[in-house]
Amino acid sequence: MSLDASNQQSITPDTQAPEVTSGSIATNGQDASTGLAAASVEATIRDDGSGFSQGWLKYTADLAPNQQQWINLNPQNLVDGDNNHGRYTSSATFHKNAANGQWSLSEAYLADETGNSTRLEDQTEIANWIAETGHTDLSSFQLKSSNPDITVPSLNKVILDTAIQDSATGMFYIPVSVEADDDLSGIESFELEIREEDSGQYKWQYVDRSDLYGTGATADPFKTSFVLSEYAASGTWSLSSLRLYDKTGNRLYLDGSELSTFLNTSGSTGSVAINNDLNQDITDPLLTSISLVTSTIDEATGRALVTLDIDVDEQKADFDDGWIEFSKTNGSGLFEIYFDASNLKTGTLHGSGGSYRISALAPEGYSDGNWEVSYVRLRDTANNVWYSWEDSLLEALKSNGSIDNFALSSATGGIAYQEYLSDLEAPEIDPDSFSLIYVADPKSSRKNRLTGCGFSS
Hints:
By secondary structure, this protein is mainly beta. Helix content is about 5%, strand content about 45%.
């Protein structure tokens, strides 16, 4: 593509979420057992400000509530109009053992470039939205499936084996065995979480079919391993939740008392000891300041660009990553920025801590004026996590001047940001200004060898 400087982004503050003005969903009529069944959505979406950015519609099988089909909507699905008022089409295919019968809209999400969004997450919200908008053609569809799997998979046993510490790195490896089976479609994946209660440290593990070693049988269980930092908390790490999925999406979920009952009655081993008293780090990273470096206008996008220095005190384990959220001090609007070890400017990832420099580009349609830091999350490699809502530290740092508010200037236009990011093509040669120059090479018996090229003025 070539960039068109006349394709200006919105410079007017945008506070309204996008809306669906019309839409429908339908299947292609194929039986799921053929492996060819699909459902397609057509929706017209309007956003008069910054423009529609992304969204999805989630449909759930009435006979198998864990079978879900997500139909994504994004700029690549635009078939007519533009992101201010356009028609989008998107589709999804079904597993050959998908549930038969009605699939109903169970969640909807739409967002614009500024971050304004609408999200419907329960049946009451969905029903009210359909009643208010009249979009009954998006409410449900019927799927034919002559060989459906609507039964959750069976979990037979879980074993957390003895932890092994690597002498070179100090990291801990916890072997895990899972005995499980499914009556029809087969095991697709599982998720496990272990937690050390005293410190609050946890580790989550997702294993999909590409990483499934074993068959799940007693003699050949599925195998994986948890890997814990060399700074992991010393103590008892216990299985705190488990999810097991088959290939259609049917899910077994265990936590709390249900998980405890399963572990006690199945002969499972759900806990393992970590002995790391000398090297453990159970202290959260500490935010010490956020100071403004510059607040300018980015020339490429015409939007505000704010650069900040964030100081973090991390005494032992390395700093891993963080999120900073900014919000308008008086009015609506927010955006956020992720940062990690690569943003380290001075200091160290551990020891006395370091200073991290980040630059955040305001979203299209943002409001100018005064903004503030409204939320912070910090995490180290031992998985100690600090959230600003956990205590009054963020407000205290604001009060004593350790965190700067900042002003964003009005947008000036520029190339639309999505176009700016998507310039992935090389420059083009104008054939009218290009010529080949042929000369005889006296040292070669071959004449008219190509020795150069040039551009005419």
